[in-house]
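Fold this complex.
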Amino acid sequence: MKPLNIGMVGYGLMGRAHTNAFRQANQFFSLGHRPVLKAVCGRDGKKAKAFAKNWGYESVETDWKALVARPDIDLIDIAATNNVHAEIALAAAKAGKMVLCEKPLGMSPSESLKMVNAVEKAGVANMVWYNYRRAPAVTMAKQLIEEGKLGKIFHYRAKFLQDWTISADVPQGGAGTWRLDASVSGSGVTGDLLAHCIDTAMWLNGGIESVTGMTETFVKKRKNALTGKKQEVLIDDASAFLARFNNGSLATFEATRYARGHKALYTFEVNGEHASLAWDLHDLHRLEWFDHRDEGNVRGWRSIHLSESEHPYIEHWWIPGVQIGFEHTFTHQVADFIAGLDSGEPARPNFRDGLATDYVTDAVLKSAKTGRWTKVKQA
Amino acid sequence: MKPLNIGMVGYGLMGRAHTNAFRQANQFFSLGHRPVLKAVCGRDGKKAKAFAKNWGYESVETDWKALVARPDIDLIDIAATNNVHAEIALAAAKAGKMVLCEKPLGMSPSESLKMVNAVEKAGVANMVWYNYRRAPAVTMAKQLIEEGKLGKIFHYRAKFLQDWTISADVPQGGAGTWRLDASVSGSGVTGDLLAHCIDTAMWLNGGIESVTGMTETFVKKRKNALTGKKQEVLIDDASAFLARFNNGSLATFEATRYARGHKALYTFEVNGEHASLAWDLHDLHRLEWFDHRDEGNVRGWRSIHLSESEHPYIEHWWIPGVQIGFEHTFTHQVADFIAGLDSGEPARPNFRDGLATDYVTDAVLKSAKTGRWTKVKQA
Amino acid sequence: MKPLNIGMVGYGLMGRAHTNAFRQANQFFSLGHRPVLKAVCGRDGKKAKAFAKNWGYESVETDWKALVARPDIDLIDIAATNNVHAEIALAAAKAGKMVLCEKPLGMSPSESLKMVNAVEKAGVANMVWYNYRRAPAVTMAKQLIEEGKLGKIFHYRAKFLQDWTISADVPQGGAGTWRLDASVSGSGVTGDLLAHCIDTAMWLNGGIESVTGMTETFVKKRKNALTGKKQEVLIDDASAFLARFNNGSLATFEATRYARGHKALYTFEVNGEHASLAWDLHDLHRLEWFDHRDEGNVRGWRSIHLSESEHPYIEHWWIPGVQIGFEHTFTHQVADFIAGLDSGEPARPNFRDGLATDYVTDAVLKSAKTGRWTKVKQA
Amino acid sequence: MKPLNIGMVGYGLMGRAHTNAFRQANQFFSLGHRPVLKAVCGRDGKKAKAFAKNWGYESVETDWKALVARPDIDLIDIAATNNVHAEIALAAAKAGKMVLCEKPLGMSPSESLKMVNAVEKAGVANMVWYNYRRAPAVTMAKQLIEEGKLGKIFHYRAKFLQDWTISADVPQGGAGTWRLDASVSGSGVTGDLLAHCIDTAMWLNGGIESVTGMTETFVKKRKNALTGKKQEVLIDDASAFLARFNNGSLATFEATRYARGHKALYTFEVNGEHASLAWDLHDLHRLEWFDHRDEGNVRGWRSIHLSESEHPYIEHWWIPGVQIGFEHTFTHQVADFIAGLDSGEPARPNFRDGLATDYVTDAVLKSAKTGRWTKVKQA
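Structure:
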């Protein structure tokens, strides 16, 4: 078993989720490399140390450049805020490190393109953390579509609904609310939530040809958590778009943080000629499935409980009837990434896939400004 | 089209439900007889008149004996309280009338047996209003079982949960609460609710061989609504039993009026070797179906929306996707009763079927007293 | 009780649904007028006679002009195909008859506007059969919004999904498939299905300010059921749009007949500051409700089973726990229409409301052609 | 942070689940002890070594007596088959080790009583792995009941349904199927599945006073996986019982491995005067909650998605809207066990609680033989 020496940038929610996955993948999957938690990097050294102690990192850095420079690191995992993805990734690639990056890839397609060029030129393994592809139910959706079980696809619809910013008292900026500060996040729900929906959608149903979008910022000014000053909110609170896929199917997409009652309601549905399927993150261990080829009187939507060895990833876990949780979308991604290293067939989504998603979110935001249908650049 | 002259006894909830069914069956079903609302009978002449006017009865009687004596009546429908079922049915049969009777058939198996003997001796058409057999989903359950789709049956479980008598202030006796007065109702939930569960169960899964039961009366004294006096409550508030069917399958049954949050939650589930099915009165237009013969990875419980022409009774109604309501369990029963007259193959459940159910409820009540397993008499 | 003499034009699905409602409203609601089924009018006299016999119409007409001319008719109910709504309504209004009209009102807003002007000038009672307003759950949604329980509304989303035209073998034109023939239907799913969604949406959430839409015709040619010739399909098979309401809330709408597994899945959801609600025609007796003001740890979406006397219309029906069906959306509309006659406060949606919906569908179709956001004319 | 040196007996499913919990508790919970994986013990040294390597155990033993004798072990965790629980526990207690034991505690109440006496005499920390108490939804059920939110409790119903032994070809005995061999398992579903239901039930609703049960063995003979011989099956395939709790509430319990379509459908429902709650292991992250004190028209069953910091254990995990899995019922039990060591208030269920459950299962099995109600011995 070869070591895979990890240098983690960031110790927030995603730093935690990735680290947990690095710690667990090898107990459940038979892999040729074993992640070694070499170092975590964070600007606040005290917090970084506490994180390292809790999770078992061997060392701490407070400057990502120092981390990237370390010869004992094989892989840089960027779990920091969006505004630093690009510079870290470029440096890491240049240093010949493998690079994993939280989504969305860059602050703009042009940033993302540079990142793609950097990793491709350096020839280093690279991946974006669009983790929902690896919820077993989503992976099975992919399998069913690839097997042709749905036939020609007519419709795709996805939404990602939250409700945590309804109060005008939620600030922008700082540790817990940087996603509301456009200078750190790039955009609002378009890059944060719709990006997930788009990555899954293109994986399942191919490229998107054109979009027309609409965005809104319901709360116009919020206090900055760092400065205490009330400032204009520059992110999109809500975003929706219509789309046409390259294969001729139609789609609706929507994301918001103003949908009372929903915490992380990422749902999608695909309607094909013969069959349809639907998924919902709030019950991520289920896939809804309708097959028109079933006998007429007993046709109905099946609620498939993904807890059996026939289901993707599940043979590695527990027993029929019991579910695994959100965190293992990351565990699976680590397992697949390492399996890609082992086999030489890299796992995806890679940076180029991340760029493809960024082209769509960019077209959505542009279209929301011009009020016109916008062609999506193909990555 | 031949007339079928109806004489209705009772104008309460069930009088209303039956009458509505008599009025509607012929618009939706092609039948050889058409019900004619000749007379309704009730002790309170004023209320009976109002009822007759609202529903279109041609005349009113205040004495059921007068109704039974009328030569222009073909069919006596007994929608009165349980304590008068037997005497009216006996007289009606003797007078050569067809007899329909609300459930349960009699106050005791011995009463019920007399009623069976009376109609069989008279050779008159007879039926008990166990209406739930004719919810399309329940009828389809019967079809699936008869087609052998479930294979050998291992388990049956049913419950009927309500919550309307939790308050100790609910009185007993009188128009709205006669079901709490044992002298009028015979028993509590055993005869009122479990009887429904048992009728369906034996229809779907054959005879019940033996039972062991438990009953409870949570509120020991209630005011009598007629006398104003506080009296001991003699009905069972809750009743549950274990059973063995003749075919070797096991069952649990439960009914109560103390299950907070449930209004009329009649549910059953049948588990067979190959497939299982489940139904719930609160969503009566759906049948849940699991077929182990489905391909492994896409096995799941199907929620069948019974609104298509492949489903029992549905071709007579509206359009795919829209549901019919509770009242049409009665409409279907009328339609099938008339179809039975037309064809000479009488519809069921007939009085003998009603007796079979009464034998089970009687065994449950006896067993609850003795604490022992009790053999069920076969009707 | 005053008679309300009905002249029905059409004996298809909607003729049947309206007639059933006219026959039933008075048994369940206390009203000052009682509908009298005077005449049904259809071009095929034989079929019209059969229909009249089945439903109890006193007479038959084969020319709607004759019907309109009859002095014994108070109300003309237009349940014929869309292409004849306008001329019949204009004539009926001119003859001083009350006019009820199936939706959508006209083939185009200009037709609809003429119809509005005609009934308003004649001062006759008028209503459009947007029946879903009167599903009890939808009516309760209206009440909850009007009581301010949701607070400021941020989002509205609706869809109406069917799957009956996926096969390219489904013809266009003729009795069962006139909805696919643009010369008879006006449009495809936009006028047929989205119109329902829009009527409800504006009733619940006020006027729509602007839209951007997308339509598609998946099957380009279909055989004409009348001529047998293969012809271009001119209706929209699928239609989706983004919208902004006058109150600042955002919306997504979608309708299609290519969503495998859905028969008539009309759903809507409204997200407000304090609470959200959602409805689904496939389980029309339920309303989903989330109230953020509930205590933190027990917050959750409530599935309200509308079967109790606290719920709109329900006190007129059966018992707690049992549901009513689709047909009673029409029964309630008749009851409310008559109550409006009785009280002098006309029930709605009236023709002007119908026009408002037609302005939206028109803007959607125009926008789908131009690819631009389109202002909606206000009725 | 003090070490807590673990000696694990067994490396099957439960050995894996416990080990995973020992490895994870400290990353998510702030605790005064940290488990150290000192040794795993299994009769097959090769398998034990592989297990140790995968999970990070420092050493391996093949004789549990050697393990118990090791001075560097603080805690013996018995994850072996039921037939060896007692002797190991007795020895471990005698050696002054803390003892954790898989459920059910012993093969019989007399064995269990000895185990209780041993740990109590030795004064060592002890716990039984009834892990479902610590699904967050189940813990919240406990809180709601303790806060009096339900009021007087009338009904409890639980079932645990599986379908994995329907085929007569499933063998008995050996690694995967020892649960079918009575000499190893003690009983069938009564000890395996009902024991879980009973532990939860008594935790939530207090002691059980008396029961009447029914058991069945559907497949009478199965091949022994070790000997290859066909032998009589001595376990119960299905088991159901009625019960009366000490508090006067009534209950139904059922477990089976013959319920087609259910993998591990452990469900319970509690009906109180004011409120009811229900849970289902197949969606373990949800609790269903009905509160009659809600305003009349918006009363409904709430589906609470346990993913927020107000919910038990959840503040230690991820973000609102995403669920944790089955394995963390064990993680929570480890965290609580250690917190009990830290605070001096031992976590439960302890061995005496396990004995209480064994008294109930024993009464059920006896009652199934005698056909009579049986008093339950109180632990």
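Chain B has a mean pLDDT of 97.
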